[in-house]
Amino acid sequence: MEVLKKRVFSLWPPFHRSGAAFFTTKAYSTVPSTQTLSVQQQNREAFRQAVVNTLERRLFYIPSFKIYGGVAGLYDYGPPGCAVKANVLALWRQHFVLEENMLEVDCPCVTPGIVLEASGHVDKFTDLMVKDEKTGACYRADHLLKDFCKDKLEKDHKLSAERAAELRHILAVLDDFSAEELCAKIKEYGITAPDTKNALSNPYPFNLMFQTSIGPSGSSPGYMRPETAQGIFVNFKDLYYYNGNKLPFAAAQIGQAFRNEISPRQGLLRVREFTLAEIEHFVDPEDKSFPKFSDVSDLELYMFPREDQMSGQPTRRITIGEAVSQGIIDNETLGYYIGRVYLFLTQLGIAKDRLRFRQHLENEMAHYSVDCWDAEIESSYGWIECVGIADRSAYDLNAHADRSGVPLVAYEKYQQPREVEKLVVVPVKKELGLAFKGNHRMVVEALEAMGDKEAMEMKASLEGKGECEFRVCALNKVVTIKNSMVSISIEKKKEQQRVFTPSVIEPSFGIGRIIYCLYEHSFYTRPSKGGDEQVNVFRFTPLVAPIKCTVFPLVQNRQYEDVAKQIAKSLTAFGISYKIDVTGTSIGKRYARTDELGVPFAVTVDTTSSVTVRERDSKQQIRVDVDEVASVVKQLTDGTSTWAGVLLRYPAHSP
Amino acid sequence: MEVLKKRVFSLWPPFHRSGAAFFTTKAYSTVPSTQTLSVQQQNREAFRQAVVNTLERRLFYIPSFKIYGGVAGLYDYGPPGCAVKANVLALWRQHFVLEENMLEVDCPCVTPGIVLEASGHVDKFTDLMVKDEKTGACYRADHLLKDFCKDKLEKDHKLSAERAAELRHILAVLDDFSAEELCAKIKEYGITAPDTKNALSNPYPFNLMFQTSIGPSGSSPGYMRPETAQGIFVNFKDLYYYNGNKLPFAAAQIGQAFRNEISPRQGLLRVREFTLAEIEHFVDPEDKSFPKFSDVSDLELYMFPREDQMSGQPTRRITIGEAVSQGIIDNETLGYYIGRVYLFLTQLGIAKDRLRFRQHLENEMAHYSVDCWDAEIESSYGWIECVGIADRSAYDLNAHADRSGVPLVAYEKYQQPREVEKLVVVPVKKELGLAFKGNHRMVVEALEAMGDKEAMEMKASLEGKGECEFRVCALNKVVTIKNSMVSISIEKKKEQQRVFTPSVIEPSFGIGRIIYCLYEHSFYTRPSKGGDEQVNVFRFTPLVAPIKCTVFPLVQNRQYEDVAKQIAKSLTAFGISYKIDVTGTSIGKRYARTDELGVPFAVTVDTTSSVTVRERDSKQQIRVDVDEVASVVKQLTDGTSTWAGVLLRYPAHSP
User: Fold this and answer.
1) Strands A382-391, A110-112: parallel, antiparallel or unpaired by DSSP?
2) For residue B98, what are the β-bridge partners?
3) Which residue of B has its CA nearest to A548?
4) Which residues of A44-74 are buried (b: 16+ CB within 10 A; e: fewer)?
5) Are A511 and A296 in contact (CB under 8 A)?
6) Phi/psi of residue B358, each to 5°?
7) Residues of B in contact with A238 (CB under 8 A)
8) A98-102, A324-328, B334-338: which range is least confident on average?
9) Mind telling me how many Å the CA of A217 is from chain B's nearest CA?
C-alpha cells in the first residue's frame, strides 16, 4: 500500500483559506490603502446588516435551537429559505444531472473510519488550534494572527511603513504557515487569548470531523462525512458497470456534510453542517476532450489565472475556448464544467460582473492535482469560493483501491490486439535458496514486487558488474543479488485491452454559500409609496423566488375572498406556491411585505370578474380575467412568457 | 420544571415493536397454523429474494461502503433508487406542503444534548441489549427471545399445545416486556449467544442515538437527530409569528435521521440512517375540526381500530367520515390526515388492499397521547408501519417550554373581554415573618407557587379548621399555616385573550420504508418473448418511474442514432429523464432491461420520419412522428394524457 499523500482539502468550503483573506491579499491585486479599506468595510458591513436583518426577520434563516441560546455555526432554513434552497437544487438537478445524464447517488452521512483513513481525512483534515491556558477556550491559531495583523493595520496610525508591509505580507502568506511558523509569530507579537488576555498554548492540529461510533460495541469508529465525494468514489466499480462499462460518465450527489469548526465566524458562510452538491466526472486521462465543448466555448467570463495573480494583474475577460486553446485551462472537460457552472450561477441571479473563476496557485494544489479553479462570488465578506472545479487525476480512486484491495479501473478494448513490451522478472529460486536459506522467500517476493524502473536498473547493474545491491524491506537489510539469481528480460506480448485508473474532474458546490451570495446580489431598498421609509426588496427570478405569487382581496369582503380562494385553488393545481393575505392591512403594506420575500407577482382581487397582476420590480400592473390569471402566472413563472410579453397582451392597470 | 415523562417513541420507525411481529401476533387476528405459516413464509422469502436481487443488480440500492465489506444498516441509493426517491419526495411536497400551504423548514442533523434531554430521548430512547459474556458481541434482547419462540414453533414438532400457546403469547406481548421480564424469560429458556452458545449478560438499556461532540472543547455533547420533529418544535414561536399568529398551521420537514441500531435486521426496512418526512400540525386543543374535512370524508379504506384488534376481528372497510362520527378516529384533523396519507400512498402505487390504518393499543400510547394510527403496508416481512399519525396533545411544546424557559403558546383574542374567575393567593407577610422568622421568604414563595387545586384545599381547610398542614419543599418540612397568614379568594377578572399551548398532530413518514414496500407492490415477472426465461418488471407509475423513457435505434446506423439524439434533446428540454441505448443488443433484450428498471415508455427509432412508442405493461405500441414524440411522452408522463387516450389518437404498431 502506498503511503497516504495529503489530500488538498480545498474543494469546498476552503479550510486552509477564507474568502475574506483574498480581499486583503497582495497577490490578488486589490490592496486598497488602509483608509479606504476601512470606509469600504463599513459600507459593506452596513449593507450586510440590512440583508441579514431582513433574512432573519422573514425567517429565511433561523439560528438553530434559538430557544436554548443557539449553537455557533448551525442555522435552520425557515419557510422562504427552505423554498429557495429547494428551487436552487431543482435547477441544479435539471442543469447538471438531467442535461448530462449523470448517475445520481445518495449515500449515508455516517461513514466508517476506514473510508476516511483511505481518503486522508483522518490524518490531514485539521486546523491548527490554540487554547487559553487558564480557561481552556479554543481558538483557530491563524484567526488570531490574522485579527492581530488587521487590527494593527487599521487602528495603529503610528505604524511604520516597514512594519505595515510586514503585516500585509503575513496576511498574504498566512494560509501556508506551518504550526511552527504560526507559533513563532504568535510568540513574537505576544498574542494572547482575546477574551481573557491569558497566555495561549502552542498551536496543534484539531481534526474537523464530527466523530461517533457505529453499533453498540464501541469498537467501530465512524465520522459524519466532511464531503459527499467519497461515497461516489467507493461506488466507482458499480457505477462504471451501470454505465455499460463506458467512459466518460459523471456521478452526482446532493447531501449534508459536516465540519466541526473550531470557532465558526462569517455567519452564514462558515457553518458546521451544510448541503453540498458534488459531481465526479470520470474520464480517460489520455483523452479529456468533451463532445459538447463547443456549447460553452464562446462564453466570455472573468478569469483570474495563476500567472495574473502572481504578477499582480487584474482579472481578465476571456472566452472559455481561448482559455483552453491557450493552455490557461488544462483541458476541455474542465473548461466545459467552468462554462456550465457560470451558466448555472448567472441563471440563478448571481451578477455576472461579481463572479470570477480563480485558478489555484501551485502551492494551493496537491502534487497530483492537474488544475483547479474556484468560482468566486463577490459579497460583503470579499470574494467567496462557492464552487471548486478540480482535475484531481487518479488520486482518489487509487487511494481507495490501495486500501480496499478492490481494483477501481476502467478498460479500453483494442479493435486489434496490440503488441506491447513487458519487463519480466523471474527469480531463480534454487540459487536464492542456497544464498539466503530461510530468508529466501522474502527475497523472492521483493524481486517480484520490483517496479519497472528498479528492475531496469538492476538489469543494467547485473549486466555491467555481475551483481547488484538490493534492499529487502521485509528483512530490513540490503543483500547482494548475483547474475545467476534472477533473470530480467523484455518480452513482447499481445494485449487485448488497456487497463487504467480514470481521472476525476470534480465540480463541488457549496449550496448554502451560493444561496447567501444570491441574497446579497438580489437585495435592494427603495422608498415606500409615501416616501417616508425604505422598503426592502429581493429581486429573485421567478425560478428562485420562494413564493411565486401572492393573492390579496383589495378590501375585506366575502365575495373578494371567495374569488381569492378560487384563484388560490387554480394556482395549487398548477403547482405554483402562493400566499394568500386576507388581512385588512393597506394594499401598499401588503405589497411591501411581499417585496421583502421577493415574491415576483401579486394578484389583487378588486372586482369579481377581473383582477390585477403586479410585477415586483417595475411595480407595473395589468388587468386579467379571473379565469385566466392562474395560467398567466404559470406562464410568467415557468418562463414561457415574459413580463414584457404579457404587457402587450393585457391592458395596463394604473392604480 | 416538570419531571420528564416518557415519550412514546412509536412514531417511526417503531423501536419497541417490529412489523414482522404483528404478522404472528394473536391480537392482530392473523394467526395461521404453524404449517401454513412456514409455507407462506417460504413463498414470501422467495418473492423477496427476487425483488431484492433485481434491486441490487440494477443499483436501486447498494450496500454502503461495499468495497470495504459494508456496514450493517447502511445503504446507498444508486441512480434509479435516487430518482425514485426524488420523485416520491416531489409528490410529497406537492401533496402536503403545497396543497396545505405548510411552512417547510430545514434544520441541522447535529443537535445539542439539551434539546434531546428535554424531548426525553437522552433518557428513554433505548433498546434492551445483552452481551455475549466472552466475546462481547451485542444482541437485542427481544430479538433473541423472539427468535427462540419462532424457532420452537416452527421446528419443534413435539411441542405440546400448552407450550405452543405460551410461546405464541410471548410473541404477542414481547414488545411490552421490561428488562426484568426479558431477563427472566432468557434465563428460563436457557437462551445463549446465537453464534457462540456462550452465556449472556443481563439485558440493559442501550441508547440508540449516535453521539458526538460539538466544537473543539469536548464539553458540548451532541447527537445526530433521531427524528426531524424536534427542529420544528423548538421553532414554534417563530413559525407561529410567521403565520400571522394564527392557528391552525402545519410545519413540515424532510431530512435525514439516525438510529444506532444494536443489530440491524430486515434488510432495507431497519437501517441506521434514513430519510424522514414529518408534519407537525398545530391546532387549538378545543377545536380540532378541519375546514377541508369533507374532501376526504367519503374515502373508504381498511381500518383496524383498537377494539377490533383486542377482540380478534379482521380489519374493516369504513369511510373516514363514519370513523370520525362514530368516535373511532378522535377528531377531524386526525381523520383528514389519515385520508391524505391514504391518497398519497395509493397515488404512488401502493395497493389499496394491502394498506391498512391500525390504531395504537392503549399500552402502545403515552399517557398524553390522544389517539394514534399507523399506516401499515403489507410486504413479505408482514405488515410494516410506514407512516405514523399521532395526536400528541401539548406534550412536546410543554417539554421544550419547561426546559428552555421560553413560553411556546398561542393566543386567542376575544371579540369582547371575558369575565373569568381567578383564584388569588395573598400571603400575609407580617404574620408569616413573625411565625417563621428567617425562613418566612421560602414559605411565602411556596404559598404563591401553589396550584389551583392545592389552594382550594387549603382554603377549605382554613375555613373549616382555621389552619392547614403545608409542605414547603425548599425547607423540606411541613409547616402549619393559620387563617391569619394567607388570604385565598376567588376574584372575577376581565380577560382580553386566552393563552394556551397548542396540540400537535404529527404525520411522520418513513420514506425508505414506503419506497421499499412500493418496490414489492410494483414487482412482477412474465415470460420473455421466446418464453425461455422470466423477465422482471416494475410497474411504476410514470410519476414514480426513475427514468420516464428509453430511446433505442432499432439497428446500429448513423441516421437512426442521429434521430435518437434529436429526440433525446427534445426530452431534456421538456425535463424528462431518459436513457439512450445504442448498443446492438436485440430489441427484445433492450426492452427487458428497460422493464426491469420500470421505465414506462420506450421509443424505438425504426425509420427517420416516425418512431414507435411502447407501453411497458401492455407491450402495446403506437407509431408517432419524430417531431411529435417528445411531446407525446411528456403528456403521458405528466398525466395530461393516458395510454388509452393516445391509443385513440395514433395508429397502433404491430411489431
Assistant:
1) unpaired
2) none
3) B98
4) beeebebbbebbeebbbbbebbbbbeebbbb
5) no
6) -105, 125
7) 59, 62, 66, 78
8) A98-102
9) 7
Return the residue matching grid coordinates 504568535: A186
* Residue found under cell 414563595: B445
Smallest CA-to-CA distance from A610 within A583, A569, A650 is with A650
- The answer to whether the CB atoms of B64 and A93 lie below 8 A apart is no
CA distance B613 to B620: 8
The residues with which A603 forms a beta bridge, in sequence order, are: A551, A613
- Residue B469: strand pairing partners: B480
**Does the beta-carbon distance from A110 to B77 stay under 8 Å?**
no
Region class of B642: left (phi > 0), else alpha (psi between -120 and 50), else beta: beta
pLDDT level of residue B36 (50, 70, 90 thresholds): low
CA distance readout (Å), A78 to A55, B254, B431: 10, 13, 54
| Alpha carbon distance A624, A604 (integer Å) | 10
B92: which 3 cell numbers? Answer: 410529497
A602 touching chain B per CB within 8 A = no
Q: Which residue has the cell 411490552?
A: B176
Helix, strand, coil percentages (3-state) for chain A, rounded to 5, are 40, 25, 35
Cα atoms in the 13 Å half-sphere on the side-chain side of A419: 3
Kindly report, residue by residue over B128-174, the tens digit of the pLDDT.
999 999 998 899 999 999 999 998 888 888 888 898 899 988 888 88
CB-based contacts of A219, cutoff 8 Å, min separation 6? none
Q: What phi and psi values does residue A177 have, to the nearest 5 degrees?
A: -65, 140
- Cα distance between residue B254 and residue B274, in whole Å: 11
Q: Do B79 and A406 touch (CB under 8 A)?
A: no
ipTM of the complex: 0.85
Residue A1 has pLDDT above 80, yes or no: no
Q: Are residues A336 and A290 in contact, defined by beta-carbon separation less than 8 angstroms?
A: yes
Residues 6+ apart with CB under 8 A from A82: A546, B104, B105, B106
Rounded Cα gap, residues A231 and A225, in angstroms = 9
Cell numbers given for B196 = 457462540
Peptide bond between residue A80 and the one before it cis (omega within 30 degrees of 0): no
pLDDT tens readout for residues B201-226: 999 999 999 999 999 988 899 999 99
The beta strand positions in A2-143, using DSSP E, are 61-63, 75-77, 103-104, 110-112, 126-131, 138-140
Between residues 68 and 97 of chain B, which touch chain A (CB distance below 8 Å)? 68, 71-72, 74-79, 81-83, 85-86, 93-94
In chain A, residues 516-575 whose CB comes closer than 8 Å to chain B: 572, 575
Beta strands at A126-131 and A138-140: parallel, antiparallel or unpaired: antiparallel
Q: Does position A37 have pLDDT exceeding 70, yes or no?
A: no
CB A511 within 8 A of CB A88: yes
Tell me the three-class secondary structure of B13-58, residue by residue: CCCCCCHHHHHCCHHHCCCCCHHHHHHHHHHHHHHHHHHHHHHHHC
The whole-angstrom separation of Cα A623 and Cα A649 is: 10
**Chain position carrying cell 453498540:** A216
